[in-house]
Amino acid sequence: GITTYAVHPGVVATDVWRRIPPPFRWLVQRFMLTPEQGAQSTIVAATDPALASHTGRYYSVGGKEKPPNKLADDPELAKTLWNKSAEWTGLPA
């Protein structure tokens, strides 16, 4: 009964860019998504009833399903990531 998704909101004009000097920040943010637009992929993944029968998929900007990067399907890399994450958090692998 639990589904999981990977979601990429896109490049969003949020406060994360605050360390970029103002003239450049304002210019660069003109080409970014608004926070509302960036939230769409997460909202779709969290609320779309059509996705309830799907799991383990990747959704990009605007909630569009896309194939993941080839590295995301590498079983050895996944095992390494799992083991390192367990090691770093002190949880059993």
Structural class: mainly alpha
- Assembly state: single chain
Largest sheet: 3 strands, mixed
Number of helices: 3
Question: Per the principal axes of the C-alpha atoms, what is the gross shape?
Answer: extended
Strand content: 5-15%
H-E string: EHHEEH
How do the strands line up in the largest sheet? 1-2-3
Give an overview of the whole structure.
With 93 residues, the protein is mainly alpha-helical. 39% of the residues lie in helices and 9% in strands. The chain is built from three helices and three strands, in the order βααββα. The chain has helices at 22-29, 35-47, 75-89, and strands at residues 5-7, 57-59, 65-66. It has a three-stranded mixed beta sheet, covered by helices on one side. It is extended.
Give the topology.
Blueprint: E1 5-7, H1 22-29, H2 35-47, E2 57-59, E3 65-66, H3 75-89
Parallel strand pairs: 1-2
Antiparallel strand pairs: 2-3
